[in-house]
TrEMBL record, chains A, B:
Catalyzes the oxidation of 3-carboxy-2-hydroxy-4-methylpentanoate (3-isopropylmalate) to 3-carboxy-4-methyl-2-oxopentanoate. The product decarboxylates to 4-methyl-2 oxopentanoate. It comes from Ancylomarina euxinus. It catalyses: (2R,3S)-3-isopropylmalate + NAD(+) = 4-methyl-2-oxopentanoate + CO2 + NADH. It is found in: Cytoplasm. GO terms for cellular component: cytosol. The gene is leuB. Binds 1 Mg(2+) or Mn(2+) ion per subunit. This is 3-isopropylmalate dehydrogenase. Its cofactor is Mg(2+); Mn(2+).
Amino acid sequence: MSYKIAVLAGDGIGPEIVAQARKVIEAIAEKYKHQIEYTEALVGAVAIDEVGNPYPDDTHEICMNSDAVLFGAIGHPKFDNDPSAKVRPEQGLLAMRQKLGLYANLRPVNTFKSLIHKSPLKTELVDGADFMCIRELTGGIYFGRPQGRSEDGQTAYDTCVYAVEEIERIVRLGFEFAGKRRKRLTIVDKANVLATSRLWRETAQRIEPEYPEIEVEYMFVDNAAMQIITWPKRFDVMVTENMFGDILTDEASVISGSMGMLPSASIGVNTSVFEPIHGSYPQAAGKNIANPCATVLSAAMMFEYAFGMMKEGALIRKAVDEALEAGVVTEDIADGKKAYSTDQVGDWLADFVK
Amino acid sequence: MSYKIAVLAGDGIGPEIVAQARKVIEAIAEKYKHQIEYTEALVGAVAIDEVGNPYPDDTHEICMNSDAVLFGAIGHPKFDNDPSAKVRPEQGLLAMRQKLGLYANLRPVNTFKSLIHKSPLKTELVDGADFMCIRELTGGIYFGRPQGRSEDGQTAYDTCVYAVEEIERIVRLGFEFAGKRRKRLTIVDKANVLATSRLWRETAQRIEPEYPEIEVEYMFVDNAAMQIITWPKRFDVMVTENMFGDILTDEASVISGSMGMLPSASIGVNTSVFEPIHGSYPQAAGKNIANPCATVLSAAMMFEYAFGMMKEGALIRKAVDEALEAGVVTEDIADGKKAYSTDQVGDWLADFVK
Ligand SMILES: CC(C)[C@H](C(=O)O)[C@@H](O)C(=O)O
Ligand SMILES: CC(C)[C@H](C(=O)O)[C@@H](O)C(=O)O
């Protein structure tokens, strides 16, 4: 059996970090005798430049025919601070999410022993923090319609919409994850204000009895924003809607203190996408200094979630842990000690895997 | 001239902490020869119990006839986790905001030297942090209509709406505050996704040239959620819409490490409301242990913003600083040292003022 990976490197440091993840994936494939086919495709600002569309149809076709998508990063400074530009890289991201049905964005939040001092939070608060944020990714105010302006241009409106099936699908995913972890599920909403949140809560409460072993709590989003900082260890699995998830997952990402280490997975109906949570970091592009670990760990999630290969995922994680231990790291986390290049870290990880 | 204060003590610890703020206000009035009239009114769970409405018409009448409202806290455990209850204390809060036209919620974020070790963030990050969060409070998805369910009950929707005037009013307030402070204004939105945010940004950009001395930056809400934790000192004045403000102001409130110290003001068209940011803390109700400082500092904001009395406000702040220095504090911030009762702290503050 052969696995098909669509490779969407994107902008900025995207190509460099994706290249390292590929080295590691190839090393895994060699070791475990997996057949992997790669197909590269355009996305982001580079796709706008080349074909005028940040998520071209060809790219979509390639993704649809893949078992998984390895994604780098998108965004270019020329599009910054001009949210009204006709074509923007983020539109590609949103189109991709919708067309591929990427309904669940998974972001593990954890710390790395050797990097814990980099956290803005006190060590005793974050040491041992380990939770999974699950963000609904194809519904809510991101895609709800109507959206726009009144005729006189004096009023603007957005619509947040959720259907029971959308909520049920992601809430079930939350229960499943909690079942494989510490059996605690936190559902974050604003049910004291929003009708959509009340439907979320009702739906979750209806499903609850099917998972008697899971302890469920309902938390208002404002409270969650506090607890993520004051007591991150209390969380095991957190599920929330799209907009709240956008804010809370980014907030939670600061816990580790090292953006360059954080992977994500977006689970879809048609295929799934694996990508670092950091951006395209244009200032570093082409300099061979970007940290490839977040992308490499996204590849670990790909083996685990897209291919169901747990050993392979675990080995990649181990490689990253060992690289940290051995000090084979890029300058963002080198702390003044010797820094390795993006390439060197990728090579070291691939060698370790072999 | 006589000033009229409506006193809405509310639930839980509300009455106890409001009583201390009144002592301090009375001490100020005596010292500076101000005439102050108090009128008490029901709000919250106690108002539901007594008259079946968390914000009764009588209370509204009293607020409308006041120069300022001193507010305690609302909320009772019997309403928790039942967001669909017919009448809830929070509805009173929302009704009050809307009927009094409380369009701007101001929350100063700062630290207290003697309490800085209580912050979940590292001292070097928070020491010196000092910014003002301004949250739009009467628009957006909180009040936008339609809101509800589809006929078959399978879909729920909320509407986020903003009119240019609503945006302009609060953005101008942000510019004014920045002008009196360090001249930096951060406008937080999600203009890469939301039509309302694009109108926010357009409106702010149109106003910008009128305040050439203010440095304005536009920041996406997900980024703001990170920067509040990783670099709080970068902010001077932050302005944002209702829902984002709900999340970000609560997130920012953890910086100080002491909820019991944080005041707020809600500036209105008809009158303004001054209240601690913490809740009704029902477990502590009646025990004479609650920290009155947040309410006392809210009274300081009342003198400054509602009555334009800066000396009076400053003296109250000084009283609170001195109480902290002198260790005259309640158990939440006593750190194992001698703890004073709510009453004792209130008396000490009032004596200091005299
Ligand atoms: C770029 C933007 C549209 C996107 C989002 O809001 O979803 C980003 O912030 C993210 O979280 O992936
Ligand atoms: C109780 C709730 C409706 C309210 C809000 O969301 O505005 C509260 O969280 C607040 O911030 O004052």
